[in-house]
Amino acid sequence: MAKPISIEVWNPSGKYRVVSTKSMPGTRWIRLLTDNDCRLEICTEAKTILSVDDILALIGDRCDAANRNGIAVGNTPGVLTETTAELAASLTLAAARRIVEADQFMRAGLYEGWLPHLFVGNLLKGQTVGVIGAGRIGSAYARMMIEGFKMNLIYYDLYQATRLEKFVTAYGQFLKANGEQPVTWKRAATMEDVLREADVISLHPVLDKTTYHLINPERLAIMKKDAVLVNASRGPVIDEVALVEHLKANPMFRVGLDVFEDEPYMKPGLADMKNAVVVPHIASASKWTREGMATLAALNVLGKIKGYPVWGNPNQVEPFLKESATPPPACPSIVNGMPSSKL
Ligand SMILES: NC(=O)c1ccc[n+]([C@@H]2O[C@H](COP(=O)([O-])OP(=O)(O)OC[C@H]3O[C@@H](n4cnc5c(N)ncnc54)[C@H](O)[C@@H]3O)[C@@H](O)[C@H]2O)c1
Ligand SMILES: O=C(O)[C@H](O)CO
Fold first, then answer.
1. What is the Cα–Cα distance from 298 to 130, expressed in whole angstroms?
2. What pTM value is reported for the model?
3. Distance 245 CA to ligand 2 centre (A)
4. Which residues form the D-isomer specific 2-hydroxyacid dehydrogenase NAD-binding domain (predicted)?
5. What DSSP string describes 131-197?
6. Is 263 known to be catalytic?
7. Alpha-carbon distance 88 to 80, whole Å?
8. Fewest C-beta atoms under 10 Å: which of 1, 215, 227, 301?
9. Ligand 1 atom with minimal separation from the 237 CA
């Protein structure tokens, strides 16, 4: 039997019991629930990852009907795209321009004056950015790198990224009309083509059996020796043991990682590699996104309680996020199609 889990309770006399496994940023999500007759229990345990036993202890045996009939599962896809893409772009720059190494050098008091060879890195302008998985985040990242740094694009996806291609074509024409070198795009026939050609490669596929260890020793071997590899998708997309070996053998090869194969742990040796920039799964950690996630999660719960239908497009959720407006009568995103009457 797991030990009791500490909680903070809002609106104790509320009719509907809502359990949040984490405290979340902002207060709108709390207000939305408590103003609508919910008793909100927020887990206040210091540990970040709750075990299944912990979650069972939190939910307790008071959700029998929900357990028997199946529980609606909601998510919050509409607010993560740009924030996650921006972190991938930050990792790209940090790795290409050796920001973390240089920062550590400076703080260690090692700087004795300007030197031509001090922390020389890679220029992005005019180079090729490779995107594997050109969905929502991959496409947003590609646009940032193309528009921001005038990089050419090569991408690999199972589907054609038509809007992205149109954007690059139009931006290329704009640059040309202004007397600048136009940017170009190419849809690669194979993932290997991207790995061979690109100077920067950012991974944005879903994690499934087709993308597990997508980056393996053979594929690392075909990448440019001074390439930059970024992963803000899911850790197991990279064979991290192979990556550590590759980083050791190729000091000019750099990576930026937001996610790890055995999260929260890193594979042995990774933490010692100066050519790796590592951050603790913070890609979605902007105030706007995290407050948006909390609000959308609360509205999924409320929508189910009130019997609202599911919103038509879970990626277009602006009407739910306006502080001053009443949210639409809908669940922003329910992924298992559980009807409201089942609650
Ligand atoms: N680090 C974070 O905090 C964070 C935040 C949000 C999402 N994510 C992760 O980012 C990734 C992308 O999310 P998204 O919202 O853009 O998803 P998405 O579904 O919009 O895009 C994923 C793309 O991957 C493509 N794909 C699937 N299998 C592939 C394969 N074998 N090879 C190449 N492409 C393939 C799909 O066709 C799709 O275009 C996911 O893995 C998601 O879990 C991470
Ligand atoms: O990785 C993700 O999907 C988000 O950052 C957390 O939900």
1. 37
2. 0.93
3. 28
4. 90-283
5. EE--SHHHHHHHHHHHHHH--EEEEE-SS--HHHHHHHHHHHHHHHHTTSPPP-EEE-SSHHHHHHH
6. yes
7. 12
8. 1
9. 41
